[in-house]
Amino acid sequence: MPPENYSFLDVAVLDAVRQRFAAGDAIAILSADLEQVIWANGPGAAVFGYPDIEGIIGASARLPLIARRQIMATSGFPQIGSDRAITLRLATGMVSRAVGFLASAVAMPDGEKAIMLTVPAAQTGSRSAAEIASRAIGGFTEDGHFIAFVDAAGKVEAASDGFAALGILPETLAALVADVADDSDRIVKRLVPGGSNSYPAGLARLTET
């Protein structure tokens, strides 16, 4: 499936992805041939030299041939298991640097096989809960799209620019949290009121708390 056809939330809620996303890890999911980025979060986009999520999804992974060969040499490729440590040399502009990744095999929502590369947030210096939440939602800049981290009570912990202006009440967010708590797919999609308008919204349950 073309990368643009995957819902951001449908991928974020995958078992292999959700806890890493919540932790603020840098994540990029590549096609099995390692040529294209199928999905990424903001920190993942930054690692690969892209300014935001919109810019990286569907774009080239920019992996040098030697880096692709390194990944393909991992035993069992593309079924490489989880959290295989690998150091790749990436070039961003005129700068080349070695980056330590954890590589895992993942299946996309439609079953497509892919490779997920992650850099743990702790490795990049993120520490406090607020900093991690802010980092996790970074790079989400597409016009008309907004993202927020919401706690179990419906309180917004971090949000992208413009989210507050939508006027979505805490009670509305709390109701979504209650709905998703019992959903086996860990995701709910609703039309929610905000100010004088209504907005299509989705809420994914990333953690158990």
Q: What does the model show?
A:
With 209 residues, this protein is an alpha+beta fold. The chain folds into two domains: 8-123, PAS domain (Beta-Lactamase); 143-204, no CATH class. The chain has helices at residues 8-12, 15-22, 42-47, 53-56, 65-72, 121-124, 129-136, 170-181; strands spanning 26-31, 37-40, 84-92, 95-107, 113-119, 148-150, 156-159, 187-194, 197-204. A five-stranded antiparallel sheet has the order 2-1-5-4-3, with helices on both faces. Strand 6 and strand 7 form a beta hairpin. The longest helix is centred in the last third of the chain and has 12 residues, at 170-181. The mean pLDDT is 90.
Notable characteristics:
209 residues; alpha+beta; Beta-Lactamase; 2 domains; five-stranded antiparallel β-sheet; 8 helices; 30% strand
Secondary structure tally: strands: 9
User: How many domains in all?
Assistant: 2
The CATH topology of the largest domain corresponds to Beta-Lactamase
Strands side by side in the biggest sheet: 2-1-5-4-3
Give the overall silhouette. Answer: globular
Q: Estimate percent helicity.
A: 25-40%
From the alpha carbons, calculate the radius of gyration and give it in angstroms: 17 Å
Structural topology:
Elements: H1 8-12, H2 15-22, E1 26-31, E2 37-40, H3 42-47, H4 53-56, H5 65-72, E3 84-92, E4 95-107, E5 113-119, H6 121-124, H7 129-136, E6 148-150, E7 156-159, H8 170-181, E8 187-194, E9 197-204
Antiparallel strand pairs: 1-2, 1-5, 3-4, 4-5, 6-7, 8-9
